[in-house]
Design goal:
The protein is mainly β. It has one domain. Helix content is 0%, strand content 45%.
C-alpha cells in the first residue's frame, strides 16, 4: 500500500496482510488533516482511493 499527499509526494510504502471485515488505519495519526491518495495492490489488481482526514 502506498500513501501519497495531494501534491503527489510518497508518504508511506507498507506491506501488510489484511483480513476481510477487519479495519486498518491507513492514514497515520502524525499526518496533518488533508486529502490523501491511497494505492493498494491485491493479487495483481491495483486500486486507488481518495481519503480525507
Amino acid at each position: 500500500m502506498y500513501v501519497y499527499n495531494i501534491q503527489g509526494a510518497l508518504l508511506s510504502n507498507e506491506v501488510f496482510t489484511c483480513n476481510a471485515g477487519v479495519n486498518n488505519k491507513i492514514i497515520k495519526a502524525e499526518y496533518p488533516a488533508g486529502i490523501y491518495l491511497v494505492r493498494l495492490t491485491v493479487a495483481g489488481q491495483t486500486s486507488y482511493a481518495k481519503v480525507v482526514k
